[in-house]
């Protein structure tokens, strides 16, 4: 079994977590809506992750909705003391599976209670406030004061231990830090999508965790000739190289690759021990500016304001 501790650790709120974690979004049904085809397989993925040493799981009660959190509870409750479950709020699913903004104080309060109930917790370790200001799914400016104040109130009631921001701009992070301690930022970032390069470096200097979503490219994983060539030369898979590149990219990056398969989970966790020679890093660094990459990421492309 891979020793995922080899990827190191980073601070997340008042806890130290391993840099290789797990994102649970893929455990819901197609379109992150409804139950999975094989619930027992979803439970097995979660148990394998924790048995392999993962102590950071990313989720949301709007995955399913409710389904993913209920599967996490079934698989892992009572939780081990070192497990940090990070959730996110700020959206609600429509009956048609749509992703709708839900960030009034009332919405956020009910979202926190939904997460507590479905995860079987008295307090949530970290709650990311997920913004949906961008017309095309990405971050965009807009005031975060009212929803963040509502979340701080829930934190004051002891229901939320730490606050993070998701799909946030640098300005929103600075505004947020004037209102609350911000434990982490969760934005889209991977080998091919590098809008946050400067942000990652400043957050690293500030000691704030950066958790890239779609680390493997999202619903259609990254495809690149350069990535495949590097992987082949190292005897690794392209997904392992994509994850190792993120681990190499900055010390504050925490990984939450998503998968519904135990085989892919094992493959991804093995990235912890993959060393990238500097020449290969140079090749990988060029991928974002090359034309050989396909990274379809529904969250960024869907102009109905989809959010995950
Ligand atoms: N804050 C936000 O707005 C936001 C948005 C999106 C996601 N997230 C979080 O970020 C986590 C990660 O994102 P994600 O799961 O959407 O995308 P991802 O980790 O980039 O990629 C997941 C996709 O890659 C496939 N995959 C995983 N490992 C693989 C492997 N070794 N070989 C081939 N294919 C592989 C998965 O399919 P299989 O199931 O077949 O393995 C799935 O289709 C989510 O689980 C969620 O917790 C947050």
Give an overview in words.
With 308 residues, this protein is of the alpha/beta class. The protein has one domain: NADP-dependent oxidoreductase domain (TIM Barrel, Alpha-Beta Barrel), CATH 3.20.20. Helices cover 36% and strands 16% of the residues. The chain is built from eleven helices and 13 strands. It has helices at residues 39-51, 67-76, 105-119, 145-156, 170-179, 197-206, 225-234, 238-249, 262-269, 278-285, 298-301, and strands at 9-12, 15-18, 22-23, 56-58, 84-89, 91-93, 99-101, 124-130, 160-166, 182-186, 209-210, 223-224, 293-294. The strands form four sheets. The protein has a seven-stranded parallel sheet, covered by helices on one side. It has a two-stranded antiparallel sheet with strand order 1-2. Helix 1 links the parallel strand 3 (22-23) and strand 4. Helix 3 packs across helix 4 (145-156). The longest helix is centred in the middle third of the chain and has 15 residues, at 105-119. The chain is globular and about 55 Å long. The model is unreliable at 291-305 (pLDDT under 50). The structure holds NADP nicotinamide-adenine-dinucleotide phosphate. NADP nicotinamide-adenine-dinucleotide phosphate (NAP) binds next to helix 9.
Share of helical residues: 25-40%
CATH superfamily: NADP-dependent oxidoreductase domain
How many structural domains? 1
Major sheet: order of its strands? 3-4-5-8-9-10-11
Task: Give the SSE order as H and E letters.
Answer: EEEHEHEEEHEHEHEHEEHHHHEH
Count all strands and give the number.
13
User: What portion of the residues fall into strands of 2 or more residues?
Assistant: 15-25%
Taking Cα atoms only, what radius of gyration do you get, to the nearest Å?
Answer: 18 Å
**Alpha-beta content class:** alpha/beta
DSSP helical segment count: 11
Task: Write down the CATH class.
Answer: Alpha Beta
Can you give the mean pLDDT? 94
Distance between the termini: 30 Å
How does the overall form come out from the CA principal axes?
A: globular
Which small-molecule species are bound to the chains here?
NADP nicotinamide-adenine-dinucleotide phosphate
Q: What is the CATH architecture descriptor?
A: Alpha-Beta Barrel
List segments where confidence is low: pLDDT < 50 over at least 5 consecutive residues. Answer: 291-305
Instruction: Give the biggest sheet.
Output: 7 strands, parallel
CATH fold node name = TIM Barrel
């Amino acid at each position: 079994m891979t020793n995922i501790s080899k990827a190191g650790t980073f601070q997340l709120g008042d806890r130290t977590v391993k840099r290789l974690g797990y994102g649970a979004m893929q455990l819901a049904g197609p379109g992150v809506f409804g139950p999975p085809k094989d619930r027992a397989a979803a439970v097995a993925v979660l148990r394998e992750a924790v048995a392999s040493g993962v102590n950071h799981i990313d989720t949301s009660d709007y995955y399913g909705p409710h389904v993913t959190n209920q599967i996490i509870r079934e698989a892992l409750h009572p939780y081990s003391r070192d497990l940090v479950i990070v959730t996110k709020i700020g959206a609600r699913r429509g009956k048609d599976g749509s992703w709708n903004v839900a960030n009034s104080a009332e919405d956020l309060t009910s979202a926190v209670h939904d997460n507590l109930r479905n995860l079987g917790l008295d307090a949530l370790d970290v709650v990311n406030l997920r913004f949906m200001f961008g017309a095309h799914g990405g971050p965009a400016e807009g005031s975060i004061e009212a929803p963040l104040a509502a979340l701080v109130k829930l934190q004051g009631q002891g229901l939320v231990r730490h606050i993070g921001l998701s799909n946030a701009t640098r300005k929103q992070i600075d505004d947020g830090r004037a209102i609350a301690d911000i434990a982490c930022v969760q934005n889209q970032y991977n080998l091919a999508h590098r809008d946050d390069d400067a942000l990652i470096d400043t957050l690293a200097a500030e000691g704030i965790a950066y958790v890239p979503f779609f680390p493997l490219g999202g619903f259609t994983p990254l495809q690149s000739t350069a990535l495949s060539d590097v992987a082949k030369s190292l005897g690794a898979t392209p997904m392992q190289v994509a994850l190792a590149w993120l681990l190499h990219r900055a010390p504050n990056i925490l990984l939450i690759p998503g998968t519904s398969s135990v085989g892919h989970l094992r493959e991804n966790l093995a990235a912890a021990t993959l060393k990238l020679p500097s020449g290969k890093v140079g090749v990988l660094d060029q991928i974002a500016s090359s034309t050989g990459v396909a990274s379809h990421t529904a969250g960024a492309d869907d102009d109905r304001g989809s959010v995950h």
